[in-house]
UniProtKB/TrEMBL annotation, chain A:
Residues 176-226 form the BHLH domain. PANTHER family: STEROL REGULATORY ELEMENT-BINDING PROTEIN (PTHR12565), TRANSCRIPTION FACTOR BHLH137 (PTHR12565:SF431). The keyword Transcription regulation applies. It comes from Forsythia ovata. Residues 71-161 are annotated as: Disordered. This is Transcription factor bHLH. One of its GO terms (biological process) is regulation of DNA-templated transcription. The lineage of its organism: Eukaryota, Viridiplantae, Streptophyta, Embryophyta, Tracheophyta.
TrEMBL record, chain B:
It holds the Pfam family IBH1_N. The keyword GTP-binding does not apply. This is Transcription factor IBH1. Its main location: nucleus. It comes from Forsythia ovata.
Length: 350, 146
């Protein structure tokens, strides 16, 4: 109810300003208000001023404003440039004012949350004030009274000093604690739960589990199994006869999954040829008559774009007999890439 | 079907990992020609594992905490070898089902000193990279064993 009274006190001031000043002064005030963003009162005052000047904005802010019908009619008197849109809006806003009683609770809550936000900011600025905030009710009432008092004398003066810069924007809902420790804790918990959700999407089978502990357990198991897989695979690689190692380094074949690799090699062939190798002899692709469609080619071209890009920018100058050059590859990556592109082409033909 | 088609960032990590890993495999082969003894295979297994982790970490780059930790551990592994082995075995044996975040800290490299939300962030990235690593290594094994 305090919020409501605040609003009522706020209202005559606005009406007075609209009535007393000509339209140019209204524009000036509106610009001042625009400059002071994110202030606690601009939520209420700005839409109303704007609505006088830009009638199309009306529909957006209708739910917030208590006295829209009166305002609209007032601006009806003032400005001659009213369109049919505005008339329609005034019709709508009259119906909205009927609805106002149901939405009173909402707006009141909004006011309290705004006030809480302001108080929170004040607390973060000066921690010595946090002793005040222990009794929520009392402080809230005090604050609102203070706001209502301060509002009438100097609205424009008060607005710019509350510009929140350099603070994390936190808003406490109704009934939540607002001292700085619990605010920080709430932010931390939100962050954790958000990241938990991201992890839940990553780990298979984790979305069926409820509870943080079980989810963590799933994640731990998954990471462990992945690490075990790496160990197992490196064991396998170690036990493989190293003579098989001199792969022609068709790195693309490693990067796509084995079930796709045939397809992709066949369909990559034309694109690789046309961008990288004018020196290579033209080859008749046998395999891709069945599998190559336009969409397929496009998606694979996207997925293998880095290789194609590198190949397109480096002329393929290595002659064909350089297969044994693979063995003294030092850290020159460009040569390496060239060779891979080259042997890539070779590999896809047999 | 584990990996998604991601934006070019992820693709480039994949490409870089593949290059580095293949290169280090080749170096390993050059230094150490085939020998069938069990001990030699075990040594090779260790070196390949280290090479895969190192190439993944260097493919990711130093901007992630876990990759920094992996590289640091690998660089100083002569100092920490015995210690790491012991703690690892201990951790694997004594783990029970309890969603203790400290277990996750032990698993994710460099996770000991993080706060929890950062740890989760790093874990997500680490899981993605491990998946890529496993997939590429699988492909290489398939290729070699044919």
């Amino acid at each position: 109810m305090a919020a409501f009274s605040l609003y009522n006190q706020h209202h005559p001031y606005l009406v007075d300003s609209v009535v007393l000043h000509p339209k140019s002064s209204i524009i000036k005030i509106c610009e001042e208000l625009k400059n002071a963003n994110n202030t606690c009162f601009s939520q209420f005052s700005r839409p109303e001023f704007r609505q006088d000047i830009v009638p199309i904005n009306l529909g957006v802010h209708q739910n917030r404003c208590l006295d829209q019908s009166t305002k609209v009619s007032l601006s009806n008197n003032e400005s001659n440039s009213l369109t049919s849109i505005k008339n329609k809006n005034s019709m709508e806003s009259s119906s909205v004012s009927d609805k106002y009683e149901s939405s009173e609770q909402v707006s009141q809550q909004k006011v309290t949350s705004v006030v809480e936000k302001k108080r929170k900011r004040r607390i973060m600025k000066s921690p010595s004030n946090s002793a005040q905030s222990k009794d929520m009710r009392e402080v809230k009432g005090k604050k609102q009274k203070k706001c209502a008092d301060k509002k009438l004398p100097g609205e424009e003066k008060k607005l710019p000093e509350e510009d929140p810069k350099g603070y994390i924007h936190v808003r406490a809902r109704r009934g939540q604690a607002t001292d700085s420790h619990s605010l920080a804790e709430r932010v931390r918990r939100e962050k954790i739960s958000e990241r938990m959700k991201a992890l839940q999407a990553l780990v298979p089978g984790c979305d069926k589990v409820t509870g943080k502990a079980l989810m963590l357990d799933e994640i731990i198991n998954y990471v462990q199994s992945l690490q075990n897989q790496v160990e197992f695979l490196s064991m396998k690689l170690a036990s493989v006869n190293p003579m098989f190692y001199d792969f022609g380094l068709d790195l693309d074949a490693f990067m796509v999954r084995p079930d796709q690799s045939l397809n992709s090699l066949a369909s990559q062939l034309p694109t690789v040829q046309q961008c990288s190798s004018p020196t290579q002899p033209p080859v008749i692709p046998e395999r891709n008559t069945s599998s190559l469609t336009a969409a397929n080619c496009y998606s694979l071209l996207e997925s293998s774009s880095p290789l194609l890009f590198q190949q397109a920018h480096m002329p393929n100058t290595l002659p064909q007999g350089n297969g044994q050059l693979l063995w003294d590859v030092d850290d020159q990556r460009q040569k390496f890439i060239n060779e891979t592109g080259f042997s890539n082409n070779l590999c896809s033909f047999h | 079907m584990t990996t998604l088609i991601m934006p070019s960032n992820h693709n480039s990590i994949k490409t870089r990992f593949t290059y580095r890993f293949a290169r280090s495999l080749k170096k390993l082969n050059k230094n150490r020609p085939a020998s069938q003894s069990m001990k030699e295979t075990y040594r090779r297994y260790h070196m390949i594992r280290v090479a895969s982790y190192a190439s993944m970490a260097s493919a990711v780059g130093p901007k992630r905490a876990w990759s920094r930790a992996v590289l640091w551990k690998i660089r100083n592994r002569t100092l920490h070898r015995t210690l790491m082995k012991k703690s690892r075995i201990h951790a694997l044996r004594t783990r029970k089902v309890s969603g203790n975040p400290n277990d996750l800290r032990k698993l994710v490299p460099g996770g000991e000193g993080m706060d929890f939300s950062r740890l989760l962030n790093e874990t997500a990235h680490y899981i993605k990279c491990l998946r890529t690593q496993v997939q590429i290594m699988k492909n290489i094994v398939d290729h070699c064993s044919n």
